[in-house]
Amino acid sequence: MAQGQGIVCLMQPDGLFDLTPSAGGASGFGAPATDAPLAVRMRPRFLEELVGQDHLLAQGAPLRRIVAGGAPMSVILWGPPGSGKTTIAHLVAASGERHFVAMSALTAGVKDVREVIDTARRRRRGTGTHTVLFIDEVHRFTKTQQDSLLAAVEDGTVTLLAATTENPYFSVISPLLSRCLLLTLRPLDDDDVRMLIRRAVAEERGLGGEITLASEAEDHLVRLASGDVRKALTALEAAAGAAIAAGQKEIELGTAERAVDTAAVRYDRDGDEHYDVISAFIKSMRGSDVDAALHYLARMLVAGEDPRFIARRLVIFASEDIGLADSTALTTAINAAQAVQLIGLPEAQLNLSHAVIHLATAPKSNAATTAISKALEDVRAGKAGAVPSHLRDAHYKGAANLGHGAGYRYPHDDPRGVVTQQYAPAELTGVEYYSPSMHGAERLIAERLPKLRQVLRANEGTNKA
């Protein structure tokens, strides 16, 4: 075997890996040792054991064909931590007769990449054996390092299997992205995590059934994981070790809490606690108690609440309870919601905190909420009326014959930017829905609005339809 190729992994008939060390920044995957961390020992051995990515595992789907060795296509796996990216690489390494080389973008450089490519090219010409190159954390590669992969991926010298937790449209160069199939892995849901925890407790390669897990402790580990099964299994192993050391046959909630140094939060996403906490959260922001609002935010995050749900409530709150008293609050809330989608937890908790602090300390006004509520009430009561003729669409042929647009006054022609003119239906002239507060920036609107209405209604009723 040529030198400078990294550690390669070829599956042997007995199911073990043949590991051949060499120079370079690459490494390979071996069979897990008996004392390996629980999350490593419980890594799925077959595609059928992979949980939570059903949208990628249908018969004939690219991921299934890649693992089976029938699809020599380069792939970028994008998903949150603990969703199965490295597991898929292990499955690829264990399948077929392909030569497998793994490296981490944290430690490898351009020289290492070129050595692997050169060796892969010689192997392909000499034996016809195809090389799969797995790069973990590919988003950490510089542009130059990513550029070094292009030609080899383009001509099939290597089949690239890259993993990233970052949005590849921002973190991977376009030429490389265009040469790869992008597969998006979803976070595992609570049922998936629970299934894998129970598998780890029962199976011989896991805890072997030597200890049981109380339902409250299981719920705590599931909430703590927030979709990251590696985190769940690491916490389970720590809790199991603590229980065994204490001579216990069952992992109780208190043991799990002490093992991971995180108290269990009484919180049910579908029960009273969910609604009670989010209600307290909103009311604390409305009451401008930023500290209480941050407490409830932290409580929801620790309990595993969907951050997108929290972000949606912030966007609603920004208009419902702040409105024009501080129009930048809505911008902050929307930006936080977008950040949650782009980044995900745990980092997105910073964006949520940013938004909560802004919204809690902003001046408050429900004037926008009250205004639309009153307008909706009138419309639903049948107070609609005809659109004044001078406001109707006058752009089509024949509209002028109907009097549409006749007499319309263009506000920009007046130096004040506002003219005397009827805009509301006749039945609603003089009706006022919006009543600005004197809080924050809305104070300026409150001072200006009476002047606007005075000009608008100077000859009220003269332009009726």
Topology readout:
Elements (H helix, E strand, L loop, with lengths): L7 E4 L5 E4 L5 E2 L10 H4 L20 H7 L6 E4 L6 H9 L5 E6 L5 H18 L3 E6 L6 H5 L2 H5 L3 E7 L3 H4 L2 H5 L2 E4 L5 H13 L9 E2 L1 H11 L3 H17 L4 E2 L1 H8 L11 H15 L3 H14 L3 H16 L5 H16 L4 H14 L5 H14 L61 H15 L9
Helix pairs in contact: 9-10, 9-11, 10-11, 10-12, 11-12, 13-14, 14-17, 15-16, 15-17, 16-17
Strand content: 5-15%
Helix fraction, binned, reads 40-55%
**Structural Rg:** 31 Å
The CATH topology of the largest domain comes to: Rossmann fold
Spans where pLDDT lies below 50 across 5 or more residues: 1-27, 461-465
| Secondary-structure element order, N to C | EEEHHEHEHEHHEHHEHEHHEHHHHHHHH
What oligomeric state do the depicted chains represent? Answer: single chain
Number of domains: 4
The top level CATH class name of the largest domain: Alpha Beta
Q: Which structural class is indicated by helix and strand composition? A: alpha/beta
Gap from first CA to last CA: 90 Å
The largest sheet is: 8 strands, mixed
**Assigned CATH architecture of the largest domain:** 3-Layer(aba) Sandwich
Q: What value does the average pLDDT take?
A: 82
Global morphology: extended
> DSSP helix count?
19
Number of strands: 10
Q: Looking at this structure, what is the CATH superfamily of the largest domain? A: P-loop containing nucleotide triphosphate hydrolases
